[in-house]
Design a protein that fits this description.
This protein is mostly helical. The chain contains 14 helices and 2 strands, in the order βααααααααααααααβ. It has a two-stranded antiparallel ribbon. Helix 1 runs parallel beside helix 9 and helix 1 crosses helix 10. The longest helix is centred in the middle third of the chain and has 47 residues. It is globular, with a radius of gyration of 22 Å. The N terminus and C terminus are likely disordered.
């Protein structure tokens, strides 16, 4: 079994790999900072990103869809925690699958994970451009997008500590807004004279399991963030304890927030079929609950949340690129830490350049890309737990079978079910991306004649 220690990881070069530039991160992340990192990535107001779309998709059963997604995400969060205890290093799914199934599968898992991580900042930038250009029509959306990319890149380059400080403010602002929204919703409902059904948001006429499952698959987009906490393992003191705690806390807190907010929204605005535009359905809800003043406050808070998500998602994907570069799966220049802040500057700059795609891509396309990559990654992590503990470590006994077989197995089946509910566009984009990754793997391994370079990391 893996033995937990508090010493920093040391790097020992694998005989088959070439000398690789690398280094150690600064261990500046505590439990509170990790939870804030995950919540900022997740965006507590993310419930409104796909609110109109999924409400119509499920015929007014959004809270039910969130309950299903939360259950699947908690199972997967448990698996992430178990793999962090086994391999407390940067790289997330890439590292876990590589250690469990070998370098080739690890490369493909890491590549598919990049589909999720690289394009999540794009989603934030797109939403910032949409909302800000709507309030300031004289300024084109691309100005807001480009400006946000520049500022986020600067904050990432000066170190993770700066992001943590900004996250405190932006996450708290969102939580305060949620409290205000819930309070106003309750006040609005209390003023109504018509009888209310408290269970209506969960089940009413038109309920359909396939439709709710399809909506639940889309809602995985809202939960992205708990998994990104694992990429901070090398910047956390005692990661084998704190990372699993933070992952579960972020999953549970975020899921409960989504459930409460979606329930209140469904109660105050049950006429889901009357949305003029599903993309702006959240504005309709805000206007009914608190008038134009609440609409303005929502827009400002939501844009701030998107900015926070862009900051931490860029930090997270740069750590995955760093891990793949350090191993030689990508050019080794990505595996360098530079400046006195010890940040992967080359990886950060690459993500910034790729984020410029937000100037020309649609919101729907980005959402489909992210959902495919996320659910593939979640499925791989659940399988990695079974492989590492029951096959490689040969743990036996009822307790171990439950912890490392039963729970991850349920997590795999739930994510696989959600994955199968995605749209055909998601699979088309995702499989094309994996095809490009396979071609890259052929090049890196020279047609599978040489292994993917690796640095064996021992504590």
């Amino acid at each position: 079994m893996h033995t937990t220690t508090n010493t920093a990881p040391s790097l020992t070069e694998h005989p088959s790999s070439q000398p690789a530039p690398s280094g150690r991160f600064r261990k500046s992340m505590g439990l509170t900072a990790l939870v804030l990192f995950g919540l900022a990535y997740m965006v507590p107001l993310a419930v409104f990103t796909t609110y109109g779309l999924v409400t119509q998709m499920t015929k007014g059963h959004l809270p039910t869809a969130y309950m299903l997604t939360l259950a699947a995400m908690l199972l997967t969060a448990y698996s992430y925690g178990r793999m962090v205890q086994a391999h407390p290093y940067s790289g997330s799914v890439y590292t876990y699958t590589r250690k469990a199934f070998g370098s080739h599968f690890g490369f493909m898992a890491g590549w598919t994970l990049l589909l999720d991580y690289i394009f999540l900042p794009l989603l934030s930038y797109l939403l910032i451009g949409i909302y800000m250009s709507e309030y300031f029509p004289s300024i084109d959306a691309w100005v807001w997008v480009a400006g946000s990319i520049a500022l986020v890149t600067f904050l990432n380059l000066i170190g993770i500590e700066s992001i943590t400080r900004v996250n405190w403010i932006l996450v708290i602002v969102q939580l305060v807004f949620i409290v205000v929204f819930v309070a106003l919703s309750i006040h609005n409902l209390a003023a109504q004279t018509a009888p209310l059904s408290l269970l209506a948001p969960f089940h009413h006429e038109g309920f359909s399991v396939p439709l709710v499952m399809t909506g639940a698959a889309v809602l995985c987009l809202s939960f992205l963030g708990f998994d990104a906490v694992s990429t901070m393992a090398e910047e956390t003191a005692n990661p084998t304890s704190r990372i699993p705690q933070a992952i579960m806390a972020v999953s549970l807190i975020g899921g409960l927030l989504f459930l409460v907010v979606s329930y209140c929204a469904q109660m105050v605005f049950p006429e889901w079929s009357t949305f003029a535009d599903p993309d702006s359905a959240s504005v309709d809800v805000m206007r009914r609950v608190g008038g134009q003043l609440l609409v303005t406050a929502f827009t400002a808070t939501y844009v701030a949340g998107c900015f926070a998500s862009a900051m931490v998602s860029q930090a997270s994907v740069s750590r995955v690129l760093f891990a793949m570069g350090r191993d030689g799966a990508l050019p080794r220049v990505f595996g360098q830490l530079v400046t006195n802040k010890r940040v992967p500057a080359t990886a950060i700059m690459l993500v910034s350049v790729l984020s410029l795609i937000a100037l020309v891509i649609s919101l729907d396309t980005v959402a489909n890309m992210i959902s495919f990559g996320a659910l593939f990654a979640f499925s791989a992590v659940n399988l990695a737990v079974v492989k590492h503990y029951l096959v490689d470590q040969k743990l036996r006994g009822a307790r171990n079978w439950l912890m490392y077989g039963g729970i991850p197995g349920l997590g795999f089946l739930s994510t696989l079910w959600l994955w199968s509910s995605l749209s055909s566009m998601s699979f088309t984009i995702g499989l094309c991306w994996m095809g490009v990754g396979f071609i890259c793997l052929l090049g890196v391994t020279r047609g599978f004649r040489v292994p993917v370079g690796e640095l064996q990391m021992a504590e």
